[in-house]
Amino acid sequence: AQSVTQLGSHVSVSEGALVLLRCNYSSSVPPYLFWYVQYPNQGLQLLLKYTTGATLVKGINGFEAEFKKSETSFHLTKPSAHMSDAAEYFCAVSVPKAGNMLTFGGGTRLMVKP
Amino acid sequence: GAGVSQSPSNKVTEKGKDVELRCDPISGHTALYWYRQSLGQGLEFLIYFQGNSAPDKSGLPSDRFSAERTGGSVSTLTIQRTQQEDSAVYLCASRIMGGGTDTQYFGPGTRLTVL
């Protein structure tokens, strides 16, 4: 079975500051890892994903994440926060070739202060 | 092309009534998933359809929940004898099979309120 832990249900940063959202996972087999963003009253939009290959993955809107197997982590970063980044972010894991159902973390609400 | 669509966007029902939620996946996507997003439980998997294979129902919380997928396209999630704890946003996602892509594309969800 898989599990995902997102540290910090709420994170607040100033506009222009570094964004760091933490995600740790547990999986008995090499997983696929995802970050999704959810804006109010909308569905989930994929930010980025790691399947195989390069461990540093770049996504939309300037976000990136690094897969660290030794730390079982997949933290999401962005060098400079923008007001439009305010949303809820979900880290998720899936097991390839087993239906790829997503197991989500609890989510982190990012607030950006002017 | 069009994304995943869901209807209705909002549904208010009385406890004990049955409800049906609809999902139209992206054309050509053979895999379809239902998830539930609630305050108490977060985002959780409900059921998975892949082509003509038997669905994976391992996430359904009770036998009041069922789903079908007709013609390999549209899916309907049915909740019988709704309870207040069924109140949640129900999200549908679809995925294309093969080609090395593993991305699920989500619809906007149906917000269900059980009074």
Compact description:
The complex is a heterodimer of chains A (114) and B (115). Chain A is built from no helices and 11 strands.
Q: What can you tell me about this protein's structure?
A:
- The complex is a heterodimer of chains A (114) and B (115).
- Chain A is an all-beta fold and 114 residues long.
- Chain A is 0% helix and 54% strand.
- In chain A, strand 4 and strand 5 form a beta hairpin.
- Chain A is globular and about 45 Å long.
- The model of chain A has no long low-confidence stretch (mean pLDDT 94).
- Chain B is mostly beta strands and 115 residues long.
- In chain B, 0% of the residues lie in helices and 48% in strands.
Name its key features.
heterodimer, A: 114 residues, mainly beta, five-stranded antiparallel beta sheet, 54% strand, B: 115 residues, six-stranded mixed beta sheet, four-stranded antiparallel beta sheet, 48% strand, globular
Rg calc of chain B: 14 Å
Helix count of chain A?
A: 0
Listing every helix as H and every strand as E from the N terminus to the C terminus, the arrangement of chain A reads EEEEEEEEEEE
Strand-residue fraction of chain B?
A: over 45%
Morphology of chain B: globular
Residue stretches of chain A low in confidence (pLDDT < 50, at least 5 long) are none
| Helical proportion of chain A, percent range | under 10%
Tell me the number of helical segments of chain B per DSSP (H or I, 4 or more residues long).
0
Low-pLDDT regions of chain B: none
Span from first to last CA of chain B? 37 Å
Strand content of chain A: over 45%
Helix percentage of chain B? under 10%
Give the helix/strand layout.
The complex is a heterodimer of chains A (114) and B (115).
Chain A: E1 3-7, E2 10-14, E3 19-26, E4 32-38, E5 44-50, E6 56-58, E7 64-68, E8 73-78, E9 87-94, E10 103-104, E11 108-113
Parallel strand pairs in A: 2-11
Antiparallel strand pairs in A: 1-3, 3-8, 4-5, 4-9, 6-7, 7-8, 9-10, 9-11
Chain B: E1 5-7, E2 10-13, E3 19-24, E4 31-38, E5 42-50, E6 65-69, E7 75-79, E8 88-95, E9 105-106, E10 110-114
Parallel strand pairs in B: 2-10
Antiparallel strand pairs in B: 1-3, 3-7, 4-5, 4-8, 6-7, 8-9, 8-10
